[in-house]
Specification:
Elements: E1 7-9, E2 12-14, E3 18-20, H1 29-37, E4 43-48, E5 60-62, H2 67-77, E6 94-96, H3 105-117, E7 123-127, H4 131-143, E8 148-152, H5 160-173, E9 178-182, H6 189-196, E10 202-205, E11 209-213, E12 215-216, E13 221-222, E14 230-234, H7 239-250, E15 257-260, H8 266-274, E16 277-282, H9 284-289, H10 293-307, E17 337-338, H11 348-352, E18 358-360, E19 367-369, H12 379-383, E20 389-390
Parallel strand pairs: 3-16, 4-7, 7-8, 8-9, 9-10, 10-15, 15-16
Antiparallel strand pairs: 1-2, 5-6, 6-14, 11-14, 12-13, 17-20, 18-19
């Protein structure tokens, strides 16, 4: 079955639905060219502003410095066998004190954007932050040949009126598609979506979450070099928040939404597509794995679509939105059912059940649920590696 991964975002054609995100892995034209070689379908450049950023150092750290080394040593001392479950790499999240680009915008206009355009991929510039700054930069960036502009709201007040003014100014300054990158810190994304919907051609969600603090337990010091040692969280740890944000925005607009936040596998991308995203951006995974990560994610997207009888991402676009209940699904206990053919008797469900309601039957070596003890919490269903547990109805 032929899989078509090309997508169109507000008139911008993408080779596939995986883009770079504004950050360290899109910091200049050469890095963007490397991402293109790694299989990305479109380019989003690092955010620029009227003045270069003065970035504190160190400015990026995984979430396990000090802890993982101690845990690994302790596990070896006590001969704990499942050492692979200790995340030495810190892949569940990254803290950063990244700012916008530390290069002058003129360097981007003269060299970085043109270098990125040499790849033949669509290029979206990222800009910030105030109406005056965008009014100055936007026409220059458009003249440099970019295909669209993403404007960051990371340092904008959580006020819909200010957000509206920024979007309006940018829309009046250029005639290429513009995208609003939404902050996870606003209380009601639907309000902000409505505030700018008439001015933008699409949305990006979400930005990093914070400020957060992480301490190295071997030194007692913070791991980042900015004021207070704080940083902003990215990676798989924020994906559920990003998924919810995309769903909220998608239900409030007909404009395309680009999902970003914790995409490290094809399955992550599919999840974003199912709640209404038309494409995804990747940053943390590219920092930890390298620029070839884009191609791997694209391959995994294609494999999922093919294995489920789909020919494009449009086949799964938004299909989860109809299943999101407007009210509580249920309050009564509903024990899961066991598919004995799928059950391997691994016992993970039993270990995770705090209600002692499920165990592996010694005779059948299959999971068995005690309906009187079961609270219907769903942990066993989510943890089963073989999908042998399920609820009969999901509403």
């Amino acid at each position: 079955m032929a899989i078509d991964l090309t997508v169109d975002i507000a008139g911008i054609p993408l080779k596939n639905p995986v883009l770079t995100a504004a950050g360290p892995t899109s910091r200049d034209g050469e890095t963007l060219a490397e991402a293109a070689r790694g299989g990305v379908g479109g380019l989003v450049a690092k955010t620029i502003s009227v003045k270069p950023a003065e970035v504190p150092r160190p400015n990026m750290q995984t979430l396990d410095r000090g802890k993982s080394q101690w845990l690994l040593a302790t596990a070896m001392q006590h001969q704990i066998v499942h050492l692979e479950r200790i995340q030495v790499r810190g892949a569940y999240g990254l803290l950063n004190h990244e700012l916008w680009s530390d290069k002058h915008y003129q360097k981007w206009l003269d060299y970085e954007y043109p270098r990125a355009k040499e790849t033949g991929l669509a290029l979206i510039a990222s800009m910030g932050y105030t109406p005056d700054e965008l009014k100055k930069l936007a026409p220059l960036v458009q003249k440099a040949g970019v295909d669209g502009i993403e404007f960051s709201t990371h340092y904008i007040e959580t006020d819909p009126k200010v957000f509206n003014d920024v979007a309006k100014t940018l829309k009046e300054s250029v005639d290429i598609p513009i995208f609003a990158k939404m902050s996870p810190h606003v209380k009601d994304l639907t309000v902000f979506t409505k505030a700018v919907d008439r001015y933008v051609d699409g949305f990006v969600a979400i930005n990093t979450l914070g400020p957060c603090l992480h301490i190295d337990i071997e030194t007692g010091r913070p791991l980042l070099g900015g004021p207070g040692g704080v940083g902003w969280l990215s990676g798989p740890a924020i994906k559920p928040l990003a998924i919810r944000a995309v769903a909220d925005i998608a239900r409030g607009t007909t404009k395309p939404v680009i999902g970003v936040g914790g995409v490290s596998t094809g399955a992550d991308a599919i999840e974003f597509f199912m709640v209404g995203a038309s494409a995804v951006q990747v940053c943390t995974a590219a920092i930890l794995e390298g620029q070839s990560v884009y191609g791997r994610i694209v391959t995994e997207i294609a494999e999922f679509l093919d294995s489920h009888g789909h020919t494009s991402t449009e086949d799964v676009h938004g299909i989860a939105l109809k299943h999101l209940p407007s009210e509580t699904l249920r309050i009564e206990s509903l024990p899961p059912t066991v598919n004995e053919e799928a059950c391997s008797g691994c016992g993970l469900c039993s270990k995770s059940c705090i209600y002692s309601a499920i165990a592996v039957n010694a005779k059948t070596t299959k999971a068995q649920v005690n309906s009187e003890l079961c609270y219907g919490c769903g942990v066993c269903v989510s943890i089963c590696p073989h999908r042998a547990l399920s609820f009969e109805t999901s509403g």
